[in-house]
Specification:
Elements (H helix, E strand, L loop, with lengths): L2 E5 L3 H13 L4 E5 L3 H12 L9 E4 L10 E4 L15 H18 L4 E4 L4 H12 L6 E3 L3 H15 L6 E2 L18 E2 L2 E2 H7 L12 H19 L4 H16 L3 E10 L5 E12 L2 E5 L6 H18 L5
Parallel strand pairs: 1-2, 1-4, 2-3, 4-5, 5-6
Antiparallel strand pairs: 7-8, 8-9, 10-11, 11-12
Helix pairs in contact: 1-2, 1-8, 3-4, 5-7
Length: about 325
């Protein structure tokens, strides 16, 4: 039996719940929202499709119904508007998190917590400071989605499966994120060497387009918001993938947001580098060998997050 509670029955929370049922991740899903009628309607709508999937209970409830949850996913907050940065959302969503935290932690003290609400790195940090939950059981969704966007774009350019693209986005889930290109491999080959050895290499669209690809990844969320008003499908799938990695217990490397303790000269902020996830939550952080320039970019990203943290009240 796997029980997952989702705080927030808006577009993101509901999409996560629906994907979990479709993917057979959980046997019980509880949706909690300040708008109880909305949570009830979303849960009912999803549950009525369970006949087409693996058996699962999907219901709405209040915080006491979260008792016994294996994972709690927090999606509550005000959505980002067109032209607005994730960090501009900070104080409003911090205040919402401060209201949620004591209620949900009281009901589910032993759960692994996944923070999805934006700005995710700031909220992951605040949750760590106010919740009393051990660090290893607090996971910010971080740049998991950014990394998937990067891998998909490189797969398209290199005409290869995304599963053969080993590339990650580090830093803030936002404008100061970056790609450590020294770590990128295409089919176990350094990215700038692959074109010369690949079959039909002349068809590969790659001319060291680092800045172009990074800008595509960074702007993808804003482009979706401008086009349709919000992002939720890909966010939901990335969150479900994090849950699958936890439950597999095998130990999976993902770029998720977690507290830094001096790695690469960064301390006391939450941001994304590669971490190992298993049934305990975050088993630990992989200390990749970054170039001096890449370490500087990570420290800059941390400084941007620290500046935001210094401006909020929690």
């Amino acid at each position: 039996m796997i029980k997952i509670t989702i705080i927030g029955a808006g577009s993101v929370g509901s999409a996560i719940a629906n994907d979990m049922v479709a993917m057979g991740i959980a046997t019980e899903i509880v949706l909690i929202d300040v708008n109880r009628e909305k949570a009830f309607g979303e849960a009912m709508d999803i549950y009525q499709g369970v006949s087409f999937c693996a058996p699962a209970i999907v219901r709405s409830g209040d915080y006491p119904e979260a008792a016994g949850s294996d994972i709690v996913i927090i999606t509550s907050g005000v959505a980002r508007k067109p032209g607005q940065t994730r960090l501009e959302l900070a104080q409003t969503n911090v205040d919402i998190l401060k209201d949620i935290t004591p209620q949900i932690v009281k009901s589910a003290p032993d759960a692994i917590y996944i923070i999805v609400s934006n700005p995710v790195d700031v909220l992951t940090y605040v949750f760590q400071k106010i919740s009393g939950i051990p660090e290893g059981r607090i996971i910010g969704s971080g740049t998991a989605l950014d990394t998937a966007r990067l891998q998909a774009e490189l797969a398209r350019r290199f005409q290869i499966s995304p599963k053969n693209v080993h590339a990650s986005v580090f830093g803030e889930h936002g404008d100061s994120s970056f790609v450590p290109w020294s770590l990128v491999r295409i089919a176990n080959t350094p990215i700038d060497e692959y074109k010369a050895i690949a079959p039909a290499g002349e068809k590969i669209r790659w001319n060291k387009d680092y800045a172009e690809v990074e800008e595509f990844v960074r702007s993808s969320g804003a482009r979706v918001i401008k086009a349709k008003g919000a992002t939720f499908y890909a966010v939901a799938m990335s969150t479900c993938h994090i849950c699958q990695c936890i439950f597999s217990g095998a130990g999976t490397a993902l770029t998720v947001s977690a507290m830094m303790h001096g790695e690469y000269g960064v301390d006391d902020v939450c941001l994304s580098t590669l971490c190992i996830l298993d049934r305990s939550g975050i088993r630990g952080r992989i200390h990749n060998e970054l170039t001096e320039e890449e370490q500087a970019k990570l420290r800059f990203s941390a400084s941007q997050l620290r500046a935001s943290l210094d401006q909020i009240q929690f």
